[in-house]
Design brief:
By secondary structure, this protein is mainly α. The chain has 6 helices and no strands. The protein has helices spanning 2-18, 31-41, 45-63, 69-84, 92-117, 125-163.
Amino acid sequence: MHRNRFTMLAVLVVGASASRLIPHPPNFTPIAALALFGGATFTNTRSAFLMPIAAMALSDAVLGFSWMTPIIYATFVLITCLGLLLRRRSGIGRIAGMSAAGAMLFFVVTNGAVWLGGGLYPKTLEGLAACYVAALPFFGNTLVSDLLYTAMLFGAVALAEHRWPALRAPERNSVAA
């Protein structure tokens, strides 16, 4: 049954990561949700960390890489760590809270990097503030997509585990319990 669970999780991951390659609003992607989901649901910790990086690398091979790529990937590693915190105790509110925390983490880290290394803003407090203010419209998409994709991924697993109890992870009764 472990193989069936892994297959179910892998199908969800492939489906969600493929959506990065279709037209979408800026910053409206499933990768942060995948990172949180992987950290929370994959029993193999290495797979949990590799999954969002692999999804990014595969789609970046098509879309292109940038100087921000290592920073973005590192942020998804941190979001996977948030998912690990859901392994012991989860629930709808806790999952939503971690998803929102992941969106904020992504916003703070990546826009801080744009300010620090992008050359678009002066290296002053005013420049930092201007960078974050300019990024606020993108944060809305990030937050909404993270919450939406997180709900879809965790919800799909909860429904599948309810319908087919053999798919449940051996160490807990359900993903959202």
